Amino acid sequence: MGFQKVSSIDELQNTSGYEGLKVFCESTDTVYQYFANKDNLPINNVSIVSTPNGPTTRWIGIEGKYKYNLLTPDSGFKTDISVDSITDLKSLLAYAGMLVYCKTVQTIYRLLVGFDLPANELTIIDSTAVSNGQWLAISGKFIYPELDLILSKLNSSAGGDFNGFTVRDEYVLLSNQVKELNFVGDSFQAVLDAPDKVTVSVGAPPPPANNIITFTLSPTVSEIGSTVNPLNFTWTVNQTPDSQSISPLIGTISPTVLSYSYTGGVSSNTTFTLTNIIGSNTSTKTTSISFRHKRYWFASTNNDFANGPKTYLDLLADSGFSSQPIADREEFATIRQTIKTYDATGGRYLYMMFPASFGTTSPQIQIGPFPVTISYVNNIPFTNESGYTTNYYVYRTTLQTGSSITVQIL
Questions:
Q1: What are phi and psi of 211, to 5 degrees?
Q2: Phi, psi for 109 (deg, rounded to 5)
Q3: pTM above the 0.85 mark?
């Protein structure tokens, strides 16, 4: 190879040199060059090795496995070395904070020690050469998706613990010029202390402007006269709040839950507000339940249904009504106007019922563009399935024949 050889890093550390001398180290499979004035580079005894010639001198890897200071493609990071594959990365002898570029996945990794994150063989890779070491993807084609979370879980700039790893400040040495911070996010601040040093103070991330993503209720509509019990609430948030509550009726609930069932019963229109507090930040979201009347429609051979007070049980007693699926005979409504389809096979009367509060005694009813004669109209008391009584208009057409008649109420 044409270079002086040493068998190990220990032997290299005890080898005197002169400016420009190159030495091949067999244990690291790397060619090192002697530099007399490189005290600005931190010694790691892997890619930058001490010498016996004084504190400013260094053996620096220039070729091979531990080549130092490769400026990787499309990145502001200065990495210590590059490797060909994930397999090489896993077996790499390294030190905490070391930056390595992996060619096959075009990604820069940083070595963490003591984090114990769930490995996935791409953005978090367990080291087989460093005890409790993991390679974290920080730049390039693949980036760990919760990069900010790693630092935000470190409780404050005064220091904090995350699975046994303690941080008080974070510094990055990038040769003589700061190219880019190792971590970037809202959860910490960076201060340039010197041309080659950045101190990163770690703190809790600020809460989002509105921490509540969704807030839903089931059911949202019920019949007038009914009492709904239970009411089931569910919601999603960006992060666990310090406290949360639902009003009215419910009050404070555990900040860790994302659902709640209220069993006190509700029988009138009610809007509920979820309030979520993180520090001084308050988020709110609302959801509502409404109580409504129903309208009913059916075809019947009975020409006398519109006379006298009627109940929902009377409707069920008519086979023209009860034989139909619920969705084809009744629905919640707030207005008179609608389009419905009837089965008048064999000759039947078409009925439409809706609360008198919806409209007029003489609406327009038509089949396609043709008006239909209303042979009977009455305003009668009607008691719904929930026991609530109010006046309903009942409309009956003349006798109709057909298996699928579409009628428009205007």
A1: -75, -20
A2: -115, 145
A3: no
